[in-house]
Write a structure and sequence with these properties.
heterodimer, A: 113 residues, 6-stranded mixed β-sheet, 5-stranded antiparallel β-sheet, 11 strands, B: 111 residues, mainly beta, 7-stranded mixed β-sheet, 4-stranded antiparallel β-sheet, 0% helix
Chain lengths: 113, 111
Amino acid sequence: SQQGEEDPQALSIQEGENATMNCSYKTSINNLQWYRQNSGRGLVHLILIRSNEREKHSGRLRVTLDTSKKSSSLLITASRAADTASYFCATGDFSGGYNKLIFGAGTRLAVHP
Amino acid sequence: DAGVIQSPRHEVTEMGQEVTLRCKPISGHNSLFWYRQTMMRGLELLIYFNNNVPIDDSGMPEDRFSAKMPNASFSTLKIQPSEPRDSAVYFCASSLLETQYFGPGTRLLVL
């Protein structure tokens, strides 16, 4: 079953614009991660934010986490055509004795030149 | 660094045949995961190994699926007999800490 639900399901923007994707989840977490998947490829880890953190940056990526609302957002600034991909949030907890990741359905981002 | 290696990249087989998917994790990683991705169900965890030992196989769909990890550098996922509903992309991922590193996947089509 999916823990994280991404919103929107699909996003279409022009190069240079910012892209914001949201993720909501249901249960307590230890960490939340964002992954990118290009068509026909495996998932690539982008950024990890822990439950005691509120914001994290990595290059053009900015991730926020609001544990009171059980939600996270991924902001890609100054988007490029190469950012076209599906983006997944994954929640991790240690309830099973390890960092089991539960992935959402993903947001399909299309960046047009 | 070679990353996670999976083979074959594509597999087309007929219903009832045995299918074996292979994975070589990143050297030094002690955790290995097998996932299945479909349009309908998204990305699902099938099984998790730690130090070559299966820890969580609650996601394995049924007895037709089995996974092994005979050593730290090799794992297999076997489906016997295969069915059309097994058609999906199967990913292997490895990790040392919380971040998982995915292989390119095996696209399986069962006719």
